[in-house]
Design brief:
217 residues; alpha/beta; Spore Coat Polysaccharide Biosynthesis Protein SpsA, Chain A; 7-stranded mixed beta sheet; two-stranded antiparallel ribbon; 6 helices; 11 strands; 28% helix
């Protein structure tokens, strides 16, 4: 039986132009790539996947940033595995997930390397959640029972036709993983939040700058 390797994947497909929006003067997805490259277990096995019309752009930005990471057509890494894999999917729309968190997601709470099961990172829900019936608010739900899927998502892949539901919708991916077996949840740091539009990118950049300013004082 082949030894299981760990591969880091930054999937750009299905996200439009947002992964290419600048954060700290660098495309969002490059931050995700750099974080994966800092994880020793996967530093030499990081790839970017993209829709065909974005492969050239992604490759040129990686080259300009001096990051020796291949760009593959979406789905190729999945359909042509070189052996049993542990996959670390890092959503480029969660660009500031730190490397220490990614590394920790590859370990059990005891500090040993994880052996089976999947892991899904999440951020707590901060909005008030109401239920509405006939345009009337009838209840307030406990938001502690909910979470927002963040990054990374870690799972094992042994080849075959067991293809994930989605690599661009991490919430759908989490549901697919639950159908396969146990899933462990891990709370992501606040800067690991997902951005949905350029204004959210600007807000995340401001938060990061403020966090650096606080650490330096």
């Amino acid at each position: 039986m082949s030894a299981r390797m760990t591969v880091g994947v930054v999937p750009l497909e299905g996200r439009g132009a947002l992964p290419f929006v600048d954060l700290h003067r660098e495309a969002l997805f490059l931050h995700a790539v750099r974080a994966l490259l800092e994880v020793d277990r996967i530093a030499d096995r990081v790839i970017v996947t993209a829709d065909r019309d974005q492969v050239s752009l992604a490759a040129s930005l990686l080259a300009r940033a001096d990051l020796d990471v291949p760009v593959q057509d979406a789905g190729r890494w999945w359909s042509r595995p070189t052996g049993p894999l542990t996959v670390v999917l890092h959503d480029p729309l969660c660009p500031l997930v730190p490397a220490w968190f990614l590394s920790g997601c590859l370990e059990e709470p005891t500090g040993h390397l994880r052996e089976d099961g999947a892991l899904v990172a999440f951020r707590p829900v901060t909005d008030t959640i109401k239920t509405v019936v006939d345009e009337r608010i009838v209840d307030t739900l406990d938001r502690d029972r909910f979470g927002i899927v963040a990054s990374p998502v870690v799972f094992d892949h042994d080849g075959g036709d067991d293809r994930p539901a989605s690599t661009h919708d991490f919430a759908a991916l989490a549901g697919w993983l639950r159908g396969r077996g146990p899933v462990r949840l891990r709370k992501a740091p606040s800067l690991g939040r997902r951005v949905d539009d350029p204004s959210a990118v600007n807000l995340l950049e401001c938060m990061d700058e403020m966090a650096h300013a606080v650490r330096e004082t």
